[in-house]
């Protein structure tokens, strides 16, 4: 039973989002490149819906890159009677945001309390309700939801996957992961962290297994002995809260990953089928029939496999909506300025090198998944947070909504945040960048007194900020491990 | 933990190892194998040797005097065509056949072609012809002697005997061509009938008997025939009279045949003509057609002030069908003409006419014309009603080269000035300040402007009449004036300098009047240039006072150009257009292929799709077809193949895949790879060194422990 404060937070967040819509802020936000990108923006969704209403395939041309389910959701909500055309859609996104916040709240309970006595729960970094409020009233998430983007859907699916993984629900995790991948593609990189979460539970440090209760902890920090003793007490509680998931400790991680991968693929195929059902009026855009046509060519011999691999892209290119939607982040086709690091890079790239560097940019996102899992084999939440941060930094078309999720999930890491040395610097620098970015954009586009280099310098600084932030997270994680093993850092 | 670090390093190295073949595959430069030897060799081999051949059939038709005919033959041979120095066309592949005879059973046929001139003497042909003199039929004899002459004659046709029946004066070349239906009428084959005047000028022994000077007349028809009528002396058998005859003929031929040559084969060299009008002629800028030979004529009716009413197209489909279709039809062998129309309102211009009391109208001097068309008129292309048919060049090949090669557009603006500027007339250049007869002007490569001063629009009483009440369709007369102006502009933009100049001098100032009238009904249209001092001193002296030299020094001559009815372009003008277009297309294609080959060889990292290779091969094959057709004298196929070659070459050279690429040296790739991979590589190397040190330390410790 939710408390009254929870209900008030949820209702006020919905009210705030609708208020932003009614006063025209939402319409303005749809024009901001920081909030709306070609892959998640409301204009793309509305364009697709307009095409469908006129019996034209939404993927004819390049004006719509929204997924069929996003378009269908918009079409379903647009028939609701409302003063503002986009109000039902915005209301739906607000409800999804509330759902995401509730999931985050529950996740916080799972991750931060770590089985500590009720008297110790208040010593978590933030209370669950406050965490929920921080997510719902976070300006980044707020703008993303008010602008009608599909990012809240993706974020909610990610949080649902994390929550299900913490609970140990493999099927629910797979379905949520497939849904998040369907909306944003990059969440597929959470497969390994979610596997670790399912296996080891939330934030069970590998070092805790070696920690002897009552062992002294020496941490060279400003917190001094008081901080160290509290940390020692909290981390020691982890050891006492060995959950039922430890019973599966003998289960092979690889086997679990394969199982999760298989379940995710099946779930994704189900979503493809649902999308094809939505696009039943446009048979040429359906994906599964195209795949079924290709399967007979998939002979088990090598030559047949090679032939299929060589013919599949052309077939997909000609007849599948997924190619229209997912080629955008994979091939970096749209070079509209955004918060990412790649638009300027690819604008200056020699054309014959572009395909290779598109591969490099996407591979860079996936490069750190396995090494971080090797280094932190039992810290699923940390791995998920790192991967969300890396994706937020390196994805093709990031928006502020991705950053909002990143900062909210970060709080789940709990006590290790206290090892952040430059937290104030990071917060102030993010605040400064959030002001400088629109200012440089205004100078470049509106005032025409600057050029693209001015804006790109801000996105580069944002990338540097991400790197420093990630290094801080890793450093603090290493400090926790060191503290538990009585090392001096 | 050390094992974990090793696994991480191993993972990264495996990652990089797996990425290496992907890097190789994705950065491998794709380019088809091009026939560079053929692409570069074609420029020197084709552009020099590519000529569409010209066949000249000269028929010397004199029924009265064999000696006179011999004199004419001598003059024609030596002065007009067959002298190697003065007539270089013979060297370049022109075939000249001469049929001569004083009657139907006594004639001879001579032929000159480049091989004969190069390897032997034309006299040999003449002797061979003389040896069979006396055969029954002159043309039959010609066919018997010259095998290829048969190609010019239709079997079962008439002979010169039918030509003998043409005694009417003046001789009309077009009617003569109809009568000579046995002669094959095809592009590149021209007929010159040289005849004596029936009412011959008589040079008597006494100069008093010569009331007027000898006269020569050249009539160039609208098809492919011309009639040259030379003065004949009544008693030409004496040596003195023959000498005088020879002198008169020389003078007459010197004046008339260069004009004939300018009309029929002056553009044969395919080289740019020297400007004769003081400005750059459009012909020197290349034909305003696309590589595929397409030309879109955008007709815009621009009403400057529509408040009191404005002109609109009446029935443009009907106008196009009745008036413009003949023009399109006659030009179809050389280019594909299409039309579109639009009506624009409020098309004001910053150029204002100045009132002239002399002309009682507002006048526009030539200096103001370049700024007359305003950029804000919005002369859009592709938005109006359009009549378009398939291109003259078949582009439905396996690879369509017209992709990315837009058609050329010529604008023709009919400008209706505002009421306060009417009538507005364009003045011709020059000191006379004479109004332009067509009230129009053209801009090279852009099109033309015709100023229309309608009277009906002024009669609208009230300002602000709404809707269709203010619309006035063009009248029939206005449409005909417009068509005349359009064709005149097209002629100025398409024809060669020499042809246009000739028309301007001899054919009503180069203006086409619709409907066209021929010379018999409008003989005043032609221009007689007048008396020319022709006699040379030596000739005068040779006369030795036996006749009045003054009467010989003045040989009057006249030239008549017959207009093509309805179409505006004569067949021989279209032939010249085909020669010019095919030569231009072949030259452009060869230059483009050569440039493409040089560029590809120079830029080793230039990536190209396979389509470019296919287009290059298609262009080379089309060039071969053009050369083959040219050797056969097949104008239509040669022009078509040349156009296709140009289109394919243009499409290959202008392929967006090439144009979109940046040209950079391979060393610039260092700048591409270093910023991203150097930091990663440094970190990896540092980690590897650290691990190696760690392993070495462990090994040392183990050794130490093992030793102790």
TrEMBL record, chain A:
Where can this protein be found? Endoplasmic reticulum membrane
UniProt entry tagged with the keyword Signal: yes
Q: What is this protein called?
A: GPI transamidase subunit PIG-U
Ranges annotated as spanning the membrane: 169-192, 253-274, 355-374, 418-441, 453-474
Keywords in alphabetical order, please.
Answer: Endoplasmic reticulum, GPI-anchor biosynthesis, Membrane, Signal, Transmembrane, Transmembrane helix
Cross-referenced InterPro entries: PIG-U
State the similarity comment. Answer: Belongs to the PIGU family.
Topology within the bilayer: Multi-pass membrane protein
Tell me if Transmembrane is a UniProt keyword of this record: yes
Q: Name one GO cellular component term.
A: GPI-anchor transamidase complex
First and last residue of the signal peptide: 1-24
Q: Which GO terms describe its biological process?
A: attachment of GPI anchor to protein; GPI anchor biosynthetic process
What top-level branch of life does the organism fall under? Eukaryota
**Record pathway:** Glycolipid biosynthesis; glycosylphosphatidylinositol-anchor biosynthesis
The organism is Chlamydomonas eustigma
TrEMBL record, chain B:
Q: In which pathway does it act?
A: Glycolipid biosynthesis; glycosylphosphatidylinositol-anchor biosynthesis
Predominant place of localization: endoplasmic reticulum
Q: How does it sit in the membrane?
A: Multi-pass membrane protein
Localization = Endoplasmic reticulum membrane
Q: Name one Pfam family in it.
A: PIG-S
List keywords of the entry alphabetically. Endoplasmic reticulum, Glycoprotein, GPI-anchor biosynthesis, Membrane, Transmembrane, Transmembrane helix
Q: Choose one Gene Ontology CC annotation of this protein and give it.
A: GPI-anchor transamidase complex
Q: Which InterPro entries match?
A: PtdIno-glycan_biosynth_class_S (IPR019540)
Q: Which domain of life is it from?
A: Eukaryota
Transmembrane stretches in the record are 7-24
Give the GO terms filed under biological process for this record.
attachment of GPI anchor to protein; GPI anchor biosynthetic process
Family membership: Belongs to the PIGS family.
Protein's name according to its UniProt entry: GPI transamidase component PIG-S
Taxonomic lineage per UniProt?
Eukaryota, Viridiplantae, Chlorophyta, core chlorophytes, Chlorophyceae
